[in-house]
Amino acid sequence: MNNLRVGLIGAGGISHVHAAGWKQLGARVTVFSHEGAAALAERYGFAVAGSVDELLAAVDVVDIVTPSSAHHELALAAIAAGRDVICEKPLAVSSEAARELEAAAEEAGVRLFPAHVVRFFPEYANLKRQVDAGRIGTPAVLRFVRGGEAPRAGSWFFDETGGGGIVLDQMIHDLDQALWLAGDVEQVYAVQSPPTVDGVVPGIVTAHVVLTHTSGAISHVQGTWGARGTTFRTKAHIAGTSGVLTIDSGIDLPTTLDIPRVSEAEGPETGGYLPPPVHAESPYTTQLRELAEAIAGGREARVSAADGIRAVALAEAAAESIRTGLAVDVDLDDAVAPREKVTA
Questions:
Q1: Where are the alpha helices (DSSP H) in 59-94?
Q2: 236 by DSSP, 3-state: which?
Q3: Residue 197 carries which DSSP code?
Q4: Are strands 61-64 and 84-88 parallel, antiparallel or unpaired?
Q5: Model pLDDT for residues 123-171, shown as the tens digit of each residue
Q6: What is the distance between the alpha carbons of residues 334 and 72, in angstroms, rounded to a whole number?
Q7: Which residue range forms the structural domain that includes residue 233?
Q8: In the chain, how many H helices and how many E strands?
Q9: Domain end point (choices 77, 98, 115)
């Protein structure tokens, strides 16, 4: 991929795992960010752009790693410039905005991928292979747990309108896994403790989302942002009609992956918010390689823009359920269906 020109927009904590991935893949990267671009570029040997327009003129693929509220505007700008787009999850902060991005990409003839990196973790990819092969029969009850140290206090992550809080930011990974493994969902029920106050999610919080799939399967998804020092851990348990599959990052050490950690001196500390490092290829690198190859070869990837829309739609339904205390019916086919343009 030495000839691939990538524009990385954003220089926060998550940018480092993307930057390390692109560097490992040999891409030529240009960075733009209102803050931190020079330091990120110096650390990884990248170029710096002075504006979004300057970046768009210099690259073929745009990788968006900004706060969630900026995804829609930046992706639209990249698509309008005819650039393929990889966008950190969530694809947008609403399913309507995410659907607009998909429609714009289709009209412009470019590719749009949400960065649902958990699909690229080998243990989760293996779950998918085993389920698809019928190893446990038909999935019946699925349980997903994800938790770790909360993001930095006072950051955009806690603004439900800007970052979506724990459901849209963190739990969207396992909402996507539930869809990937058990198919579409028809009803969502969710609770959160402590509750959001005036649009601000508490600094330490747990949420639980129950999904009723159209197949009849039930998924339980739990997410936690814990106190400083909380060990990052994920678990998945898939019970089917003829067997059970389980993974646990605290036990299955051979499948824990090497994700670069940034020290306090070098930049944002991501050790408690991202999975811990050990000794294998980062799933972020695996993800970027597959998506770049899909773009270059015109092939499908294991994640699509429609998958991104569906996951956001589930997060929206969970947020509505938390607000109202009621179960929320969803139609994910309708969520991804194109809308007719309204003309004056």
A1: 71-80
A2: strand
A3: B
A4: parallel
A5: 999 999 999 999 999 999 999 999 999 998 888 999 988 887 999 999 9
A6: 20
A7: 118-256+304-329
A8: 11, 13
A9: 115
